[in-house]
């Protein structure tokens, strides 16, 4: 029976020829060394008899030598090098030393190389190392990780003897056991189970971070096959990325000099790590990978120029939960020289994936109750519409953002993704302010993306006094305001529109059932969208009534007319004013130039 202190004795420094003389003459004091073995340039003066009695390779080398008095042999590419060879020779001479997790893999491979099998002596070095591996290493997750880490520097012979495979399997099985222990503890003690579970999870997650990426990949795949929890695997992936990718990007964002040079070896290795970790992410839809981790990996993939498939996979995963994304997550810096400050192309692809998902979900739905604006899919689309409008407003001040990319983001969203176009109008106004060199044709093309009938009262008031807008846009705003006022006075707001929608939604006998169903679904969605707009207009009318009453009360005291009070009241509704809120800029005042306020506060002002 082998114990962990088997062959233990005081440790010595790496072997030199003089040291070999000292310990061989202790056993054979009257016999001088008769063979010199060279391992990686280091010479060992030894005796043939104890070596050939345990090593089949040395026995064959001595037997195959033409000169029976040969005194020098050379061993090439011995696993573990001179230090491991010294331990193997100590074993041949019967000297004690300690087998540990740090040297057992080297000793096992060196014993295989030297053919130290049971055919030459019982309990030879192969058998001793195998006993240690089976009885001590594979029984412990921690020891298995330590031995697996030492295999990284060994030649392919380590795979031939199966050390990595056994360690990987042991790690997965022991992690699964830890998971079961955590579950039983959760049943026994509700208050302490969370702390116990997190502590058990933490230590083996940290241990795995020392592995090379190829071994780590095999370990995670083995864990998935034996049933380790997906949240534990995700936690391990996040910790490994945090450790192995630390410091990436500090000198790579907005650095044109980097883009001109080819990536170095370290960046290539980091790129492989990113691609491997993305490939290891669970594919189960029930697994919730934190969005900040997905965006962090996407930024890493962009900066390290990872494979296209890796970036597309991250974009697809983000698009699946785009309605839960924050604005700061979408502000991905661009690393290409001469491009815009933010990576608009990546956001455009994410949005395309999201719209494709919404379309697929709508095609899978059955029945009329789940269709239209009231459905979860359309609720997500409205959230994404507001998110994209905020993103456009945030990126619009970028002087390097081309009109083509800006309009591509605007046009990709369907009309029913916005109940009102106030956010879109705000973003376009900021873009016009930051790009004063746009031609009149380009301004008209950009402003055509705004539906004047979907602007609120406040936005219409602002647009009517906005000198950055084309004349045609101003006329359309005034005309829509006139129609709105006429409908409000006649009390028929939206009735004609609704009747027109209802009459157009009558099924046609010439249409196929599938087309008829799609038409009804579209009409249902448009009707609910119009109802949402009418609610917004009703809220505006209630505000106007409130200011109207306030004006009538103040009329006798300050001598102001009713219409003056009403105009002032409406002007106080300042969703487009600056952060000050109470300080409303007059319409006759010229817009501020570049010497005005800058930063985030400037982006919220369109005056």
From TrEMBL:
SMART domains per the UniProt record, alphabetical: BTB
NPH3 domain segment(s): 202-484
UniProt xrefs under Pfam families: BTB, NPH3
PROSITE patterns assigned to the protein according to its UniProt record, in alphabetical order: BTB (PS50097), NPH3 (PS51649)
Region (Disordered): 575-607
Coiled-coil regions listed: 517-544
InterPro entries: BTB/POZ_dom, NPH3/RPT2-like, NPH3_dom
Name of this chain's protein: Phototropic-responsive NPH3 family protein
UniProt organism field: Populus tomentosa (Chinese white poplar)
């Amino acid at each position: 029976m082998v114990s962990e202190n088997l062959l233990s004795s005081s440790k010595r420094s790496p072997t030199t020829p003089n040291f070999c003389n000292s310990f061989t003459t202790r056993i054979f004091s009257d016999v001088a060394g008769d063979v010199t073995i060279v391992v990686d340039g280091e010479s060992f003066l030894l005796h043939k008899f104890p070596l050939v009695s345990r090593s089949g390779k040395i026995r064959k080398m001595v037997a195959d030598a033409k000169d029976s008095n040969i005194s020098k042999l050379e061993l090439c590419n011995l696993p573990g090098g001179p230090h491991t060879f010294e331990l193997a020779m100590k074993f041949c001479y019967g000297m004690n030393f300690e087998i540990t997790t740090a040297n057992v893999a080297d000793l096992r491979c060196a014993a295989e190389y030297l053919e130290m099998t049971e055919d030459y002596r019982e309990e030879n070095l192969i058998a001793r190392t195998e006993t240690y591996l089976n009885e001590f290493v594979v029984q412990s997750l921690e020891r298995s990780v330590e031995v697996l880490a030492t295999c990284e520097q060994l030649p392919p012979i380590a795979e031939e003897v199966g050390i990595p495979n056994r360690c990987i399997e042991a790690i997965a099985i022991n992690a699964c056991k830890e998971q079961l222990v955590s579950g039983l503890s959760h049943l026994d003690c509700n208050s302490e189970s969370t702390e116990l579970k997190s502590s058990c999870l933490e230590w083996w997650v940290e241990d795995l971070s020392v592995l090379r990426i190829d071994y780590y990949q095999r370990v995670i795949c083995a864990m998935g096959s034996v049933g380790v929890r997906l949240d534990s695997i995700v936690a391990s992936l996040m910790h490994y990325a945090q450790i192995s990718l630390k410091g990436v990007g500090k000198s790579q964002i907005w650095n044109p000099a980097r883009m001109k040079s080819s990536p170095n070896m370290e960046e290539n290795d980091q790129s492989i790590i990113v691609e491997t970790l993305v490939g290891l992410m669970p594919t189960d839809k029930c697994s919730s990978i934190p969005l900040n981790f997905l965006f962090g990996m996407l930024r890493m993939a962009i900066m390290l120029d990872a494979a296209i498939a890796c970036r597309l996979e991250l974009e697809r995963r983000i698009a699946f939960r785009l309605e839960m994304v924050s604005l700061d997550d979408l502000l991905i810096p661009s690393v290409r020289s001469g491009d815009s400050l933010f990576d608009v192309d990546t956001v455009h692809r994410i949005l395309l994936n999201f719209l494709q998902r919404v379309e697929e979900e709508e095609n899978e739905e059955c029945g009329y109750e789940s269709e239209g604006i009231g459905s979860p899919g359309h609720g997500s689309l409205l959230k994404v519409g507001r998110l994209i409008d905020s993103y456009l407003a945030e990126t619009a001040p970028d002087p390097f953002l081309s009109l083509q990319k800006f309009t591509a983001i605007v046009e990709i969203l369907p009309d029913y993704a916005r109940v009102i176009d106030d956010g879109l109008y705000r973003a376009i106004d900021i873009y016009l302010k930051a790009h004063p060199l746009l031609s009149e044709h380009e301004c008209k093309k950009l402003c055509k993306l705004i539906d004047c009938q979907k602007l609120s009262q406040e936005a219409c008031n602002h647009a009517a006094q906005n000198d950055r807008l084309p004349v045609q846009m101003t006329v359309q705003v005034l005309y829509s305001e006139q129609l709105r006022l006429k409908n409000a006075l006649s009390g028929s707001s939206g009735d004609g529109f609704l009747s027109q929608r209802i009459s157009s939604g009558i099924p046609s006998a010439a249409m196929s059932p599938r087309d008829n169903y799609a038409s009804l679904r579209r009409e249902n969605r448009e009707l609910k969208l119009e109802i949402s707009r009418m609610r917004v207009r009703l809220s505006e009318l209630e505000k106007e009534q409130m200011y109207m009453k306030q004006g009538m009360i103040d009329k006798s005291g300050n001598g102001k007319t009713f219409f003056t009070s009403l105009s002032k009241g409406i002007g106080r509704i300042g969703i487009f004013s600056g952060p000050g809120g109470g300080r409303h800029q007059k319409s006759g005042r010229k817009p501020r130039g570049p010497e005005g306020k800058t930063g985030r506060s400037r982006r919220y002002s369109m005056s």
